[in-house]
Amino acid sequence: MLQNVSEEEYIEELAGGEYEREPVPASKWKGWGSFLGMYAGEHAAGTEFVIGPLFLTTGVSAFDLIVGLLLGNLLAVLSWRFLTAEIAVKNRLTLYFQLEKISGATLVKFYNVANGVLFCFLAGSMITVSATAVGIPFGMEMPQLTDTLPNGPTYIIIVLVVGAVIALIASRGYETVSKAANWMSPVIVLAFLAAGIVALNQLGVGSFQDFWNIWGEGSEPFPGQIKYTFWHVMIWSWFANAAMHVGMSDLSVFRFAKKASAGWMTAAGMYVGHYMAWIAAALLYAVFLQSPEAQATLAGGQAPEVAPGPLAYNAIGWFGIIAVLLAGWTTANPTIYRAGLAFQTLMPKVSTFWVTILAGTIATIAGLFPAFAMKLLGFVAFYGFVLAPFGAVIVFEHFFHDRFGIRKNYAEFAGISFNPAVLWAWAVSFGLFYFLSWQFDIFLSFVTLPAWLLCGVLFLVLSKRWQREKA
């Protein structure tokens, strides 16, 4: 779902860490091939081993899953192409510097801290994923779908060890590990493909109709899950990476593109990782659901476990264990690194090593609570909902500042560190739609787009008023 290698490392590889506070010069622009490989490998990650099975727990039908993912991922690609890449090649600035010009340095710190905390929780869920692979030889009791707290001392010890190793690697050897992650990505993609093919064999699939019948007309969701329809699948898959495209995080990557058409290369990630890998992982879970153990659990009115390690091991043996371990690790490691960089904006005098250790500690503590992994669909929806509206500020200013009569990059122009128009636009849109979602039990991804649009419009209205008053 999220990149295995962080934008910061990729940018450093492209330009030696330069141009963080200035436009990228033409001599450093890259063709579409640089982005094809990046997105193809980085969106088949540890999260995919969880997301695919979780779709089955929602009772989704074959049409809703297969067609919903097809269209939802297309909308994500279009968002990257016509919003993120379009703005990136016009300004050629990182998200952070672009946001600082508009909102001021103080608000950028607020954004970074929110981003860092959410990154820690995501990394924690990936530590849980890796722990399900490490725990197999030790006979670890796997976390259940409804578990919130650790289920035993073995689980706690394995999570603590895995988390400590990941945090130490992230803090001391990031360059080496990030390069290794690029080499591991094809192995992980191959594992998804192999596992999917083996699972089809185990399910006795001999035709497309057999494949379709795995989901059929859908079913009742498992205990504790909500029922997913076509609209749930399509909208959720569109906004699974909302922070990256409509949230503008990938401005930092596409500022190196020669043309905005490089945005089309995100299709490689969406249809390798967010289509093939999700469906392959769902097939692994479909095999497990036919087992006597899973049937007995369902008969008892409980949801069978969604543990990526055993699912992959059942299909492709030790290769599956290694693939799950690597997938969780190569996602958690750079995620912890990026969280550390975000926290460093509040503690600029603290070394990168120690802020990364801090981020790793928070992530490891989060990994002790399996709910972050078992409720990953909901967490990803929340993540995008929180951060996407910040991107609306950039999008609406870019396309409508002239028409609306507001000054572009107002914080930079006025020399202020805090632009209230940005904060109020985000706070009102977030508060209003989160309340509606909670009060009326509305699927959070359904209100991400309205919140994004409202934030953009409010930013224009408030900016026009406050800029006029200052003038």
UniProtKB/TrEMBL annotation:
Gene Ontology MF: a single term: cytosine transmembrane transporter activity
Ranges that cross the membrane: 62-83, 117-140, 152-171, 183-208, 228-247, 268-291, 311-332, 353-374, 380-401, 413-436, 442-462
Cited Gene3D superfamilies: Hydantoin permease
Keywords from the UniProt entry: Membrane, Transmembrane, Transmembrane helix
Domain of life per record: Bacteria
GO cellular component, one term: plasma membrane
PANTHER family given in the database record: CYTOSINE PERMEASE, CYTOSINE TRANSPORTER CODB
The protein's name: Purine-cytosine permease-like protein
